[in-house]
Fold this protein.
Amino acid sequence: MNRLKKLLMVPSLLVWLAQASFAAEPMEIPVWPPEALPKIERVKPEAVVDRGSTNKPDRAVSNVTVPTLTVYLPEGNQTDTVAVIICPGGGYSHLSLDKEGHAVARWLNTIGVAGIVLKYRMPRPDLSAGQKPWPIQDGEQAIRLVRSHAAEWKIDPHHVGLMGFSAGGHLASSVGTHLETPTQTATNPVERLSTRPDFMVLVYPVISMEEPIAHQGSLHNLLGSTPDPKWVEFYSNDLNVTAQTPPTFLVQAQDDRVSVENSLRFYAALRKAGVPSEIHIFEKGGHGFGLGINGGETAVWPSLCAAWLKNR
């Protein structure tokens, strides 16, 4: 019986407890070579606050300036393994690195999927004027990098997806709706690879930067305290869905402090564009439920997602 089928038969709490036995030793690699990163003066050092416990860490990491990928390959993974790059949330001010990152990667390993945690840079609109925001640059480069390692990691380069939580959902959906054409003449072969994710999983995502549904913290951290209306529209990702947007799985709760209209608008735009999509809106669950291991309605979403991935 394959791992996806097994997951549908196991309660999410047992999946959580079983994670350690499935995950191989992770490896961490830089997203960019050092010379590609801007030199930042007078920057605060990266800071970590652990809000969890010894057995269940819940680190909030802020002031990230050097992005990395942490790669969890499933035990005994074979050629053509599906890979998911995970973008933790945190309002573009910090990263919920364990609950919405490493724990999710270990869960993905239990269903035979490679989980790859993206520790992306925090945006600095004051330093990146005229550029794509740094987190979105990191998301695009992460996809290229994973595809460049496909043979080494036994990953199918045509089955590389993005999963994003909260502001990480905005990052993922930005990459998925603002598609770049690969530079075939680039001297670096990594730059010739596509940045388009093959699918997206968006969990209580920030999608729109427009009032009244914008998440104010994410908006101002990404685009500045007085954002240009042009960029507000550009990064309201429900307005930028096309037929080329990847198939998408959406999860959110109605009582989320990030308006559920974010998911509903994105789903409506996907349907209008004819993009295969699935949405699950729970009555209760709030914001930041991660894998739903604390119980409640949202506890079933990993099983629903596993079935969707299998059907894809």
In short: Residues 1-22 have pLDDT under 50 and may be disordered.
